[in-house]
Structures are given as C-alpha cells and as structure tokens.
Amino acid sequence: MSANCLFMATTPSFAIEHGVPLEVLSIVMAATGACEIVCRVVNGWVADRKLVTALVQLSAVLLMTSGAMFLAAIIPGIVGTCDPPLVYLGQLLPQRVCE
Predict the structure, then answer these.
(1) pTM (2 decimals)?
(2) Number of domain units in the chain
(3) Angle at 35 between CA 29 and CA 40, to 5 degrees
(4) CA 21 to CA 87: how far, in whole Å?
C-alpha cells in the first residue's frame, strides 16, 4: 500500500517536470489503478485457493517486475525517451537512437 501511495504521489509531478502531456499522464495513472484492482483480485483468489505458497507468489511478482524493468532499461523508446537509461552495455546499443 505504501509503495502505491508513493507512486501515485510522485508520478504526476515527475512527469510534468519532464514534459509528459497531461493526457498521457492521466491514461498512465488510470491504467495503473485499473491494473492494481485486477492484480489484487487475482492475487487474493490465488491465495485463497492455496494453489501456491506466498513465497512463490512473491517470487513470481518480483520476476515479472524485474523483467519489465529490464526491458524498459534496454529497449530505446519503450518509456518515451530516445536514449536507453542504461549504460550502453559496452557499445552493444547505439548511443543515439532517435534523431
């Protein structure tokens, strides 16, 4: 809960400072809330059915999250920037993608 509150409290000001249009920001915030509702329901259902242990659930969520963060870091343009935020992996990625 506290991580979500932190995200919802800091994302709008961060996005506005970096020039994200308000329309895009509103879509991102709405999608985040909608995904949270779905994920909480599915997580609760899986926990009630005792299909997997809590440790397996946590591990699966961390694996999916870290995979998404890795993709966002190495694929240029996936988060709306021209340059990937990672160091250029020893020149494996071009230094300037969008020109």
Answers:
(1) 0.57
(2) 2
(3) 130
(4) 27
Domain that holds residue 79: 54-99
**Nearest CA among 25, 23, 27 for reference residue 14:** 25
Q: What is the DSSP secondary structure assignment for residue 59, as one 8-state letter?
A: H
| Span 52-89, pLDDT tens digits | 888 998 899 899 989 887 877 776 665 555 555 454 44
Cβ(8)–Cβ(28) under 8 Å? no
Structure tokens at 68: 């998404």
Both tokens of residue 88?
């250029």
The SS3 call for residue 51 is coil
Cβ-in-10-Å burial (0-12, 13-18, 19+) of 57 comes to middle
Query: Do 37 and 71 lie in a common domain?
Result: no
Based on the fold, state whether residues 28 and 61 are members of the same structural domain: no
Cβ count near 36 (within 10 Å): 13
